[in-house]
Amino acid sequence: MKLKRLMALGMAAVMTMSLTACGGSGDTPSTNNASDNNTASDNNTSNDNNAAGDSTPSDDSSAADNTGAAADGLTYGSITLGEDYTDLTASIKFIHHKTDREQDGSMAKYIEAFNQDYPNISVETEGITDYAQTALLRLPTGDAWGDVMFIPSIDMVQLPDYFIPYGTVDEMSEYVNFADQWKFEGNCYGVGYMGNAQGILYNKKVFADAGVTELPKTPTEFIAALQQIKDNTDAIPLYTNYAAGWTMGGQWDAYLGAITTGDTTWLNQKFAHSAEPFKDNGDETGAYALYKILYDAVANGLTEDDYTTTDWEGCKGMINRGEIGTMVLGSWAVAQMKEADANGSDIGYMPFPITVNGKQYATAGPDYCFGINKESSADNQTAAMVFVKWMVEKSGWCDNEGGYPISKTAPTSFVFDGVEVVNNDSAPDDEADLMNQMNAECELNFNNGGDRKVQEIVEAAATGSMTYDEIMANWTELWNDAQASLGVDVTE
């Protein structure tokens, strides 16, 4: 058991560091030790991989004081863009993971537009390929890394050691979504650059050509839509992305919880205690219905001819050109698919096709979040906060990436009509590590790099080696054995 536990923690650390590379150009959602952000790796993090954990910021007499407060009581809400600090002169640096936006010139254009409003604030940017690890290594170097960074995977208690607050969580909730993602003692230390929602990527033209006039809301309707695509077009109805690996458990597991149950407490509070979490509810809801979509699509020939030959980079252009109908990916992928070829307007994003008591749900949370260096000078902290607010409210970056909106005031094109957007509630403090323990013991690794279990669904459906109910029965046995081994109280 101890060996399994160490292996699980090691996998969590590796996944935290590697998901950016897997996503291509650093677009995959980040993970952290904050509240559940419902990305592909909600429970991926461990406190054991925080390279900055034992370090102390340098003591620089020219920097801000060591209280963790912003310079002169500055807050995000106190800034009126275009009016305040327009004569401030400062040079700041922003480090981030979006290397693609450095390469395609987008970042330079954002800075150019920012300087039209704030001509005296110079902004240097640096895109870092291995950002998750590099940011942790740079974090304890005081002001040497710069003034604004995307907060890496650290513990909440460390936030005041490295960053200044934007204001209280209650105050910030008036301006941005997910203000509690990086919180400590009631203060907000991180503001997302974009949000990630969980749904399905699809080609609108393929749907229209296939005669699919309404977006499917149930698994039965979704499979029927895939069949229409197969019957009426040359497109692959559902592209599994089997070969990439991380696109399997890393994506399908993300829909566990409120999306499939309508219950925000299920994933982190009830799942580990459930005797039959994979049972057929009889109404196309729950974990059973979630993974059965994949099994049925493969078994019915509604996916690529040879799942072993799927190509992550190649699929981007394929769906853009209408060669693929749907892919199960977070909303972070929208921008990549739109940019992959000339038909970006054909790319759409729809809610996951499960309906609970007449309602569809989506979970959403922030990607990486802007953090402002506590060790920066007062002027640089002010310039940094102005820059962050401008990027969130005026740059259009979030919308350009196809992200779920962060700002509550900026225009957005992201639409999930008729869907309730929720967050999966966190585990109680005394069970914060229970899912990690369950994953280590049963080795199914939900939201923790459990790609093989989902790949095996594809394999079984393609070959007929196991029925779907046999797979679910096997999962249930593994789950129950883990509960017994760990002495988990089984309540249902």
Task: Write up this protein.
By secondary structure, this protein is an alpha/beta fold. The chain folds into 2 domains: 50-194 and 369-409, D-Maltodextrin-Binding Protein, domain 2 (3-Layer(aba) Sandwich), CATH 3.40.190; 197-366 and 415-492, 3-Layer(aba) Sandwich (D-Maltodextrin-Binding Protein, domain 2). Helix content is 36%, strand content 12%. It has 19 helices and 15 strands. The chain has helices at 2-23, 99-103, 106-117, 131-138, 159-162, 169-172, 204-210, 219-232, 249-252, 258-261, 266-270, 286-299, 312-320, 334-339, 378-393, 397-400, 434-442, 451-463, 468-486, and strands spanning 90-96, 121-127, 148-150, 167-168, 183-184, 187-188, 191-192, 195-197, 199-203, 236-238, 324-327, 347-351, 360-366, 369-372, 419-422. It has a 5-stranded mixed beta sheet with strand order 2-1-3-14-7. Strands 10-11-9-12 form a 4-stranded mixed beta sheet. It is globular and about 70 Å long.
Q: In short, what is this structure?
A:
With 492 residues, the chain is α/β, with parallel strands linked by helices. The chain has helices at residues 2-23, 99-103, 106-117, 131-138, 159-162, 169-172, 204-210, 219-232, 249-252, 258-261, 266-270, 286-299, 312-320, 334-339, 378-393, 397-400, 434-442, 451-463, 468-486, and strands spanning 90-96, 121-127, 148-150, 167-168, 183-184, 187-188, 191-192, 195-197, 199-203, 236-238, 324-327, 347-351, 360-366, 369-372, 419-422. Strand 5 and strand 6 form a beta hairpin.
